[in-house]
Amino acid sequence: MNASFLLEYGSGNVSGTIMRDVLALGDGEMQFHGVAMGRVNMASTMLKRKIQTDGIFGLGFEALSSIANLNLFAPSTRNSNNSDRLSRFSVYIKELPGCKLSSQFLLGGVDESLVGGKTKVT
Question: Which region is the signal sequence (predicted)?
């Protein structure tokens, strides 16, 4: 795939190249084929100054995506062994840059120690 993207935010914009690869997790037993990833080639100065980040994990569903069919959880990217693990996932984003806990993405459940209040599984 040799396509480019441009994302515009209130604080700036980024542009880059879209590529596809195999994403393997857990010693390779869970594989996602044809996962689209973006390499940022340019980010506006305002965005670089305001946001410190290593990346964004794309969990957008097709209806919300500006790039059609690039969802990690789309049936075309996963094999049948992944279905149970993908039935639930949770995301924890660290509160402040100095926070000791790092951000986490968990497949298959929730880390209750990071939840403030009741959790609702949908």
Answer: none
